[in-house]
Amino acid sequence: MAKKTKNVTLKAILDVIRYENPSTQDEIAEKLGITRRYVTKLLQPLISEKIVKRAYVIEPKKIDQFLEIYGEEKVPIEQGTLRIVELLEGMAEHVYKQLDMSFEALSQYNSELANEALKMDFITNNMNEKIRTSVDMALSMNPSSESSKINAFSEVAYDLERIGDHSCQFANFTLKESYKVDPEMLKYIQEMYETSKMMVSYSMDVFLNEKLNLKDKVMNYEEKIHVLQKKALNCIATQMAEASFDDTERSTYYLSLSRVVKAFERIGDISIEIIDISREYYENIPRTTTPEQFRRKERKGSYL
């Protein structure tokens, strides 16, 4: 029992060092309500083994070795990112809701919903900034090569912000255009919305929960969304040809509708980017520098 208590206390000391950046042993003792002498006694073997450095920084590569010796479960470097994971999960849920409300505003031609969706985008931007700041803080506390992977969280948060920005196209269409989407076009847009939302949901599941087997589903949805995009743009082109050249409001409407269709493509491309980040994070597979839209053209060319 005494050994277990000792290990628990030592684990608490290490947690203080890892997450609170103490300057002295007195500070560690004060935070935990124990004596400085006891802190010194527990840390001395770890300092000798260079697991803990004199400046009270843990050597990440050696912490697992210590935990094995004392019969403790290994604590991955990523444990320091648990709070960031929670923030990213919350941001993902918020963006799903923003996407839902933006599409609902578009499909119902509801300006009140459109304004609410745009307000949600401000929150999305703030969430991204909060995650970016949290990542920078975590890296400053533990700038090891392993913990540098935490940058992936900042990149995914930025991708979620971009998805929120693209969904603003739907809300802005509702507020600025003089016509609601006709039933024929809405059928395509509805399906593109459902497909793109599944792509975002699956890609975030891959990143947050290491469900790499979902990659193929996301890629299949990508093919589907581009088939739908082609049909939707053909429908717009047909309707434009039938409209009067003198009807400037109609011309503007069709241009805006094309941007809405394009926004779904962009959301799909961003979902693929999140998949790429996930594969680099979990499998150490370097990401390509070729943008997804060009890779898509290359894939199509290889089928010919």
Secondary-structure map:
Elements: H1 2-20, H2 25-32, H3 36-48, H4 60-69, H5 82-108, H6 111-141, H7 151-176, H8 183-209, H9 215-242, H10 248-283, H11 292-303
Helix pairs in contact: 1-2, 2-3, 5-6, 5-7, 5-8, 6-7, 7-10, 8-9, 8-10, 9-10
The CATH topology label of the largest domain is Methane Monooxygenase Hydroxylase, Chain G, domain 1
Which assembly state applies to the chains in this document? single chain
Number of helices: 11
Dominant shape: elongated
Beta-strand portion reads under 5%
Query: What is the chain-wise order of helices and strands?
Result: HHHHHHHHHHH
Throw out a few tags for this protein:
304 residues, mainly alpha, Arc Repressor Mutant, subunit A
